[in-house]
Amino acid sequence: MATDEPSVLRAELRWALAMGGVVAGILVAILYAALALHRNPPSNIETIDPKTLHLSSEFTERNLGTKVESNGQITARVVTTQFAFVPQCLVVPEGTLVTLRLASPDVIHGILVSGTNVNTMVVPGYVSQVHTVFTKTGDLLMPCHEYCGLGHSQMLARVRVLPQSEFKPGSDGRIACAAQ
Ligand code: CUA
User: 152 in helix, strand or coil?
Assistant: First the structure.
């Protein structure tokens, strides 16, 4: 086997090219995910007092869940807390932009919605906001994916994606999962 200097150099160049190819492939995958699939890290920066978020304004119990605003914008608000989501089930329409807004009064939680690009941490002191379009109808799981204490594995909610024709909010713009 030839081990003179030129052949060593050629082998090193081959490996450098191969590694350059791997790096380029990863960069292309990242750009494709960001630009074509809209998989981006959430970038909303908005503060909220975790000690009082349930007492007034946006994250009071009455205001949680899905609401169609007067301008047609659809917002679903959720409080993530040890060890539950409030509400436990969200109703959203298929094929429409939905904004999820989440806040935590206690510790760091994380949420994802299976099969979608929704994936964010919920850090006390901040409002997490994610925009998404649900493309398939049916029930999706929304588990907590950040270890938040002994009940972490029980912390699970559902997102019910309804066809446009069945998404009928009440006169106050609100819609919730039917009692089960
Ligand atoms: Cu909340 Cu894990």
Answer: helix
Q: Would you say residue 180 lies in a domain?
A: no
Q: Is the CB of 148 under 6 A from ligand 1?
A: yes
Cα 37 to middle of ligand 1, angstroms: 26
Vertex 68 angle, CA 154 and 42, to 5°: 55
Model-level pTM? 0.79
- Least confident residue range of 11-15, 16-20, 66-70: 66-70
**3-state percent breakdown (helix, strand, coil) of the chain, nearest 5:** 25, 35, 45
Q: 45 CA to middle of ligand 1, Å?
A: 21
* Residue 20 covered by a domain: yes
pLDDT tens column, 23-50: 999 999 999 988 887 777 777 788 899 8
Do 55 and 102 lie in one domain? The reply is yes
- In short, whether 157's Cβ falls inside 6 Å of ligand 1 is no
Residue having the nearest C-alpha atom to atom 1 of ligand 1: 109
